[in-house]
Amino acid sequence: MGEPTIEDYLRENRTFPPPPEFVARAVVADDSIYAEAEADFEAFWARRARETLTWYDDFHTVLEWDLPFAKWFVGGTLNVSYNCLDRHVEAGRGGKVAYYWEGEPGDTRTITYAELLEEVCRFANVLKSLGVQQGDRVAIYMPMIPELPVAMLACTRIGAAHSVIFGGFSPDSIIDRVNDAEAKLIVTADGGFRRGTVSALKPNVDAAIASTPSVEHVVVVRRTENDVSMVEGRDHWYHDLMAEASADCPPVKMDSEALLYLLYTSGTTAKPKGIMHTTGGYLAQVAYTHKVVFDLHPDDDVYWCAADIGWVTGHSYIVYGPLTNGATSVIYEGTPDTPGRDRLWAIVEKYGVTQLYTAPTAIRMFMKWGHEEPEKHDLSSLRLLGTVGEPINPEAWMWYYRYIGGERCPIVDTWWQTETGAHMITPLPGVTTLKPGSATFAFPGIGVEVVDDHGRPVERGGGYLTLTRPWPAMLRGIWGDPDRYRETYWSRFPGRYFAGDGCKIDDDGYLWLLGRVDDVMNVSGHRVSTTEVESALVDHEAVAEAAVVGASDPTTGQAIIGYVILKQRFEPTPELVEEIRQHVAVKIGPTARPRTVVVVPDLPKTRSGKIMRRLLRDVAEGRQLGDTTTLADASVVEEIRQRALEAPQED
User: Regarding the domain delimited by 294-413, which CATH topology (the fold level of the hierarchy) does it fall under?
Assistant: First the structure.
C-alpha cells in the first residue's frame, strides 16, 4: 500500500445521519444500490440509461473502452430535446412549469414544458433557416435568460453541437473559443442585468467577430434595450426570426456518441481546452444523478441550482438533468446582493424552493453578511441543500446547515468537474451519514482511489484523487487534440484519470477534497493543503472567508500566507489578527500556522466565484501580477497588495 503524501491535520467528528422523516420518502433509502453497482458497473449504468431515458434504438453494447477513449451505449439512438421536452408533453404534463425565471430587476416569466417545447422548435427552425446543419457548432454568449436554455435545446433538436461561452468573458475569450470550435453562428443578447446596471454583450461579439472567420450569422435577443449596432445580412433580432418560424420541428435521431456540446476550460497553456461531451452517456448520468442526489420528487419539488449556465454546473444541473426528469426549476439572472443581500432568500420564499444548490464561496459570502439576512424570510420549504465548485470547510457547512436548512436539511456536498460531466463523489441524502466538509463517498458505479506519488493506493491520509474506470458522462477528449487529452488526464498515473485534485481518506473511509495539488504548500518538508489551513482559519468566530497560499521562504521552503475576510461585526485589530493566527496552530498544529495573516475586504475571484490563488501568490512574493481579465473585480488585488504591505510579520 502507498504512503500518505499530503498532511492530514483536520479532524471532524460531528456526524449527521439522514433524518427519519427524510428517509421515509427518499428516492434511494438503502445502500443496496452500492452493492449492485460494484457487482457489475456496466449493467448498473445500462439499467439506469434504459430506465431514465427514452431511446429510439436500444444500444447493443454498454461500453467500449480503449484507454483513454470510451464509447457508452453503442448502437443506441436518442434525441436530447425529446427527452427533455416532448416526452413530458406527450405524457400529458405539458402544463407543468419547467422554469420560474426571475430577472434581476424583478421581472418574471413562468414557462411550462409545452411553451418551452414550442419555443425550442421555433428556434431550431430559425437555426436551420440560417444554414445550421447536423454536426455544425453554434456558440452561445448570453445572460441568464430563458432564451439561453432554448438555444441549447434547439441545437440538440437538430443535431448541432453548442459551445456556451460564459457571459462575463472578454472578446479575446470569444475569439479563442469560436475559432477553435469553428462555430458557424453566435447566439447572443444586447446585454444582461448585473448589480443594477446593464452588462453589454453584443458589443463584445462585435469586437470579436472581425477575428472569427467561421461565423456567418449572429442572432441577438433583446433583453436590456441598450443601443447595439446590427450589420445587415449578418445580425438578426431573435424576436423577428421567431415570429416567422414554424413551431413544428421533428427531433433528429442522434447516435449515443454524437457530440452534444463543447465547453472550454482554461488550460496550463494559453489555449483553452474544448471539453467534448456526447449524447447518451452524458444524459444518462446527469439525469440519474440529478434524480437521486437531489432526491427529486418532480410533482412536489421546486429545485434551484443557483449557478450560471455558462459553467458545467448549469449545463448539467439547470438544463439537462432537471428537464430530463420533468422537474420544475428556478433560474435567476442577477447577483445575490441586488437589490439587497437577502435576494436569494427572497426567491426561495417566493417560489417555495425545496432544493438549493450553490457554491461554498457564496455560502462564505452569506456568512460574512450575517444570518440576519436569511432570517428575514421563511425558508421552511427547503428540504435539501447542496454545494458544488470546491471543497466546503466545516464551519461554512455548519452555517449553511443551521441558518439556511434550519438543522433539518441534509447537505449533499458534490465533487465533480467540467471533464466528468456529472456527480462523481457525493452523499446520497436518504442513505449517507454526513460529516461537515466531506463529500463522503464515490457515487455508485464510480471507481475512486487516492494514491501516492508512485500511484499506489493510500488507505488512510492524503494523496492524489484518481478515477480507476470509465463512467458514462466522462469527457470524450479535447476537441481537435487527442494527444493533449491523453497527456493532460492520463499520463501522471498510467491507467488512471487524474485531473489535479488532492484528497484524503479518514478512518471511516470518508473522502475529503483538498483542492488543487498545484496549491499544496511545502512547509519544512510537510506538504500542507490550502484547504485544511483555510478551514482552520474560518473555524475562528471572526472569519467569514479565507484563502491561503505558499510564498517562498529561505528557512522553511515555503511560508503560509493567509488572507481573511472578517464578519461584519469584527474590527481588524492587531490582537485579533494574532489570535486568528494562533487559532490555526491550536486547531491543526504549529506547522500549519500562517507566517502572516492579512485582513482584506474581498478576495480575487472569477465571475464564477473561484478564488484566484495565483494572484495572491504574486502579491505574497512581490511579483508583477499575472492576467486579471477574468476577475469579477480587478481593483480588489491592489487593495490586497496594500494591506499585505501593512500586515505584521511573524518574528
Answer: Rossmann fold (3.40.50)
